[in-house]
Amino acid sequence: MSFFSDERAAELRQLFFESAQELLQALNDQGLQLEQHPGDTEIVRGIRRTVHTLKGDSAACGYRELSELSHTLEDVLTPEMAAAKGNALAEIVLSAADMFDAMLAAYRGNLQPPDGDPLRKMVAELLASPNANSSADFKPRFEWSEYDRARMNDAINRGRPVYSVAVCVDPQCPMRGAALQLIQNVLQQAGTVLAQHPEDATPNTMPDVMEFAVATSLPPQTLEQKLHIPAVVSRVVIALWEPVAAILEDEDDEDSETEQDVLGITESEPTPLATGTNLEAKQSVTKRPSTSTNGSDTLRVDAERIDAVMNLVGELIIGKSMLYQSISEFGRRFPKDPLRTQLLDTMAQQSQVLNALQRSVMKIRMVPVDQLFRRFPRLVRDTAKACGKDIVMTVSGADTDLDKGILDALAEPLAHLVRNAADHGIETPQERIAAGKQAQGIIRLNAYHQANHVVLEVTDDGRGLNIERVVAKAIENGVITAEQASRLNDAEKAELVFESGVTTAERVTEISGRGVGMDVVRNTLARLKGTITIDSAPGVGTTFRLTLPLTLAIIKALLFRVGTRIFAVPLSSVIEITRATEQSVHIVDNAEVLRLREQLITLVRVSELVPGGQGTSNKFFIVIVGLGDRKFGLVVNRLVGEEELVIKAIQDNLVSTELVSGASILGDGTVVLILNLTAVVERLGRMRLSPAAQTPVKAEGIGASA
Amino acid sequence: MNNDLHIVGFKIGSETYGVPVSLVHEIVRVPDITQVPETPEFVEGVINLRGKIISVVDLRKRFGEKEIQPHKKNRVIVVENSGKLVGLIVDAASEVMKLPVAQVEPPPNVFAENEITYVTGVGKLNNRLIILVDLQKVLTRGELRRIGEALEEAAAS
Question: Which value does ipTM take for this structure?
Answer without folding.
Answer: 0.78
